[in-house]
Amino acid sequence: MAQHVLVSGIEVDAQLKSFLEEEALPGTGIEPASFWFGFSALLRELTPENRRLLRKRDRLQEAIDRRNAGLHGLPPSPVEEEEFLREIGYLVDPPAPFTIGTENVDPEISRIAGPQLVVPVNNARYALNAANARWGSLYDALYGTDALGDLPPAGGYDAARGRRVVDWGRALLDEIAPLSGGRHADVSFYRIEGDRLVTDRGGLDDPARLAGWRDGAILLRHHDLHVEIVLDPAHPIGRDDMAGVADILLESAITAIMDCEDSVTAVDASEKIGVYRNWLGLMKGDLSAQVAKGGRSFERRLAEDRHYVAPGGETLTLRGRALLFVRNVGHLMTNPMMRIDGEEVHEGLADAVITALIGLHDIGERRANSAAGSIYIVKPKMHGPEEAAFAGALFDRTENLLGLARNTIKIGVMDEERRTSANLGAVIAAVKDRIVFINTGFLDRTGDEIHTSMRLGPMVRKGEMKSAAWLKAYEDNNVDTGLACGFPGRAQIGKGMWAMPDRMADMLAQKHIHPEAGASTAWVPSPTAATLHAIHYHRVDVAARQRALAGRTPAALANLLTIPIADGRNWSAEEVREELENNVQGILGYVVRWIDQGVGCSKVPDVHDVGLMEDRATCRISSQHVANWLLHGVVAPAQVEEALLRMAAVVDRQNAGDPGYRPMAPDPEASIAFQAARALIFEGAAQPSGYTEPLLHTHRLALKRAG
Ligand SMILES: CC(=O)SCCNC(=O)CCNC(=O)[C@H](O)C(C)(C)COP(=O)(O)OP(=O)(O)OC[C@H]1O[C@@H](n2cnc3c(N)ncnc32)[C@H](O)[C@@H]1OP(=O)(O)O
Ligand SMILES: O=CC(=O)O
Ligand SMILES: [Mg+2]
Questions:
Q1: Ligand 2 pocket: which of 262, 474, 498, 514 to mutate (most atoms <8 Å of CB)?
Q2: What pLDDT does residue 353 have?
Q3: ipTM of this complex > 0.90?
Q4: I need a surface site. Which of 133, 384, 504, 539 has the fewest CB within 10 A?
């Protein structure tokens, strides 16, 4: 049983108290007594407002549910929907035109367009890898994935495949830094003479693309992104290369989000400490992890900065690591790590204070993460401007507590709830001097789309959501609003996750649409994906795209408010079965690892055997979808029960190789994970905003209590 101790009138888990006093506070100049005094006051002041905002969510949803139930399946026109949403206070008047005023923003956010990597911060091995993913090997990314159309054969190095990789890489150099007299593939030497790159195929068409050099490397720069040609004639690859090129390194994950939210499992103090401790290691620079792979073991640590000579002879220092954000949880959840007046603390309040406290370790002397002296917090799952203003107030109060100048804590706003999308201008206005991004979290957003109109009728199939009118309007509106509010040069306009981690050829072929749509960043699930997605930012000039898009007619609110119900469509029994099984398999495959093993982000095969990145947001979509079809009789309860049992056996088989895995199918009644998945569906319609957190937390806590 967790022990709580009373500090400044709040009950704090004893382990959390020790962690904060012995690990997080030392070095910040803040004394424990004043920290606890301020923390307690902040919680007392802000908890009532947090609760009020959650009650407002419920009231609005109840009003929408009542109205929708009374429509008997006849969807409101977008005009009627808009009028209704205004009437109940869901839609507010847009603000007068304004531009954001955020200052002290690092160039990785304000200027450089490139990939954004997300990683569960409680996994030190992955978190370090993500921080170090600023630079990635193009050759490895092409060789080791299906990017070139096929997978590498089993066994040792395949020289023919290696040649294809090298050719592809050299052709990319022709795009990024063309030579005046031929192709990079035909170059037999790269040399620096004076301040210029010299090859036997001429110099650079644009000499300014040479950013620098160091012993054994040429550094190019294009669209603010760097590319390093690694020269090493002794290297196994360089040895067989006419010009001695051993690799091409791409500046890849320009920013990375250390996630405390949807990709982690943190239901109590000990798990929250795991999350906070890794963030602390990243901010202090001393995080390490022992990695065993390929028959060897090594210690992974944070990469160092990289040093070059620039044309003119000056030293050029480039960051070796991605600029790090930390994603806090939203306003919904509470956590037993602390109690105030006997009630669990609102987790988002604690996250803000503790992650910002930890951020202090960087913004003093070190500035190894933010040279500009900012702490970057991503705030997810906010519904509308009042909730954004509340996050702003929380950050104000946190700054007061930690002695920080106003707006030191920056905010990345996830545009991932319908009330936020529909009021995006007002949301941005509410945090206009600290906002550093808006990002279309289309996965949560799809879950909220289903949940909000749950009672209207059955929704289209999950795959069809991607072409629904609301989704296009949502994506366009996000860019239009960001441009209108002056984001270019100050803040990111971001797009969502590539959720098929093994489908790199498809990503390479498709994800260019994000920079083309005017986004300065977009999410990737892995360092390899970051390296490959970086190519899109060489191919698309985001700044030019943003200038071109700035004058277009903004996305119509009517389209954003077009509800994706199926409108009388009858699916065949086969289509219903496939949809149900796909959702149920995804839910079970994700939930079983979440509950039993504490893994918050997993790759789970869908019914077509494509491994999908599953996190709480994708689980929200699947569970809400089944709940919606159940509510409207598209599927019967017995059919769902039967699918759960059948898919449990499938998921058990998929995990058969994992020695730590507890099968569900032999005794589903006794499997807490199975029961959690079942509850997510059968109790799905009643979950706040359709979120999965309350049921996931309850079931994991039950499992931990059971031992
Ligand atoms: C809707 C949303 O909120 S999306 C945001 C939440 N999602 C995420 O954060 C995605 C994070 N990604 C992941 O957790 C993983 O990539 C998964 C679960 C999707 C796939 O994982 P796996 O199949 O185990 O990855 P895979 O086996 O292919 O690769 C493992 C290697 O890649 C690395 N890796 C994989 N994902 C990441 C990542 N996001 N960051 C850093 N490194 C990563 C691992 O460190 C490991 O390398 P190592 O052995 O050198 O340590
Ligand atoms: O957080 C991202 C999302 O898509 O949801
Ligand atoms: Mg999300």
A1: 262
A2: 99
A3: yes
A4: 539
End-to-end Cα separation, the chain, in angstroms: 11
Tokens 């959501």 locate to 465
For ligand 1, whether the C-beta of 617 sits within 6 Å is yes
The tokens describing 575, both together, are 């289509």
CB 383 within 8 A of CB 50: no
What's the CA gap between 65 and 689, in Å, rounded?
Answer: 12
Share of the chain above pLDDT 70, in %: 100
Q: What interhelical angle do 384-402 and 32-70 show, nearest 10?
A: 180
Half-sphere exposure of 560 (CA within 13 A, CB side): 25
Could you give the count of Cα atoms lying within 13 Å of 169 in the half-sphere of its Cβ? 28
**Which of 333, 287, 325, 241 is closest to 51 using CA atoms?**
333
Q: What is the pLDDT of residue 369?
A: 98
CB 229 within 8 A of CB 173: yes
78-109 as b/e: b if 16+ CB within 10 A: beebbebbeeeebbbeebeeeebebebbbebb
User: How close is the Cα of 8 to the center of ligand 3, in Å?
Assistant: 34
Q: What are φ and ψ of residue 603, in 5° steps?
A: -100, 120
From 326, 413, 440, 444, give the residue whose CB has the most ligand 2 atoms within 8 Å, as the site to mutate.
Answer: 444
Q: Where are the beta strands (DSSP E) in 302-361?
A: 306-309, 315-318, 323-327, 334-340, 343-346
Alpha carbons 360 and 395: distance in angstroms, whole number: 14
Residue 136 pLDDT grade (very low, low, confident, very high; cuts 50, 70, 90): very high
The tokens for 623 are 């569970």
Residue 615 annotated among the catalytic residues of the structure: yes
Q: Residue 142 — pLDDT band, cuts 50, 70, 90?
A: very high
CA of 247 to the centre of ligand 2 (A): 34
Instruction: Residue 548: count other Cβ atoms within 10 Å of its Cβ.
Output: 11
pLDDT level of residue 570 (50, 70, 90 thresholds): confident
Nearest CA to ligand 1 atom 6: 263
pLDDT for residue 415 is more than 90: yes
Question: On the CB side of 416, how many CA atoms lie within 13 Å of its CA?
Answer: 29
Domains, in order of start, for the chain: 79-135+255-296+315-560 (3.20.20.360), 136-251 (2.170.170.11), 573-706 (1.20.1220.12)
Residue 448: which of 577, 313, 315, 560 has the closest Cα? 560
Asked if the model's pLDDT at residue 75 lies above 80, the reply is: yes
> Pick from 471, 340, 410: which is nearest to 47 by CA?
340
Q: What is the DSSP letter of 463?
A: G
Q: What is the structure's pLDDT at 366? A: 87
324 contacts 282 by C-beta, under 8 angstroms: yes
What's the pLDDT at 492? 98
What are the DSSP calls for 39-67, one per residue? HHHHHHHHHHHHHHHHHHHHHHHHHHHHH
Closest residue (by CA) to atom 2 of ligand 2?
441
Three-state secondary structure readout of 374-391: CEEEEECCCCHHHHHHHH
Binding-site residue positions for glyoxylate: 327, 416, 441-444
129 alpha carbon – ligand 1 mean position (Å): 9
Question: Up-side HSE of residue 219: CA atoms within 13 Å toward CB?
Answer: 21
How crowded is residue 469: how many other Cβ atoms within 10 Å of its Cβ?
A: 16
Q: What is the pTM of this model?
A: 0.98
Query: Hey, which residues does 222 pair with through a beta bridge?
Result: 225
Q: What mean pLDDT comes out for the span 28-57?
A: 98
Contact present, 120 and 291 (Cβ < 8 Å): no
Nearest to 608 by CA among 582, 645, 569, 644: 582
